[in-house]
């Protein structure tokens, strides 16, 4: 296989990774990193330099931002540790598709629904000292904040994924397309 064909395959994988930074269930930054590593191995690391470190930094930052944004969103409305832990447990359960009675989508819906339900249930359990109505309102606020934080994190992750692919293209295009 020629390097030009491999380059286009790597770019397609990386673009799927960019889409995956927004769409739940597709490993966005991981696909971009795999594409970069395949290219580096195929070229014998001949075209690497500062840009490889920059891409790895951007991808690690994008993963960290996603988690921090969800945490920040929950903290803004006074979520307890129970709500935050519930959101994490809900995310894991949702990814594994273990949420009962999901009508469609399985893990793709579960990764969205799981953290919301987890945060809501966690807060409901923690705030037992409150009456049911105020407890439910606070728990709902926490659940919504988890969603908002997660969406903000996904947007930032998407922009960082585009930056990583852009860095790759800027530093490899001329060597392949000449």
Number of helices: 6
Topology pattern, helix = H, strand = E: HHHHHH
Taken from the alpha-carbon principal axes, the silhouette is: elongated
Strand residue content: under 5%
Instruction: Give the domain tally.
Output: 1
- Unreliable stretches, pLDDT < 50, 5 or more residues? none
Rg for CA atoms:
20 Å
**Which class do the helix and strand fractions yield?**
mainly alpha
Main sheet characteristics: none
What assembly state would you assign to the polypeptide chains in this entry?
single chain
CA-CA gap between termini: 17 Å
Rounded average pLDDT: 84
Q: How many strand units?
A: 0
Helix fraction bin? over 70%
Would you spell out the secondary-structure blueprint of this structure?
Elements: H1 3-20, H2 28-42, H3 50-76, H4 81-95, H5 107-126, H6 132-176
Helix pairs in contact: 1-2, 1-6, 2-3, 2-6, 3-6, 4-5, 5-6
What would you note in describing this structure?
The protein is mainly alpha-helical and 178 residues long. The chain has helices spanning 3-20, 28-42, 50-76, 81-95, 107-126, 132-176. The radius of gyration is 20 Å and the shape is elongated. 34% of the residues are buried.
Quick description:
The protein is built from six helices and no strands. It has 178 residues and is mainly α.
Features:
mainly alpha, 6 helices, 178 residues
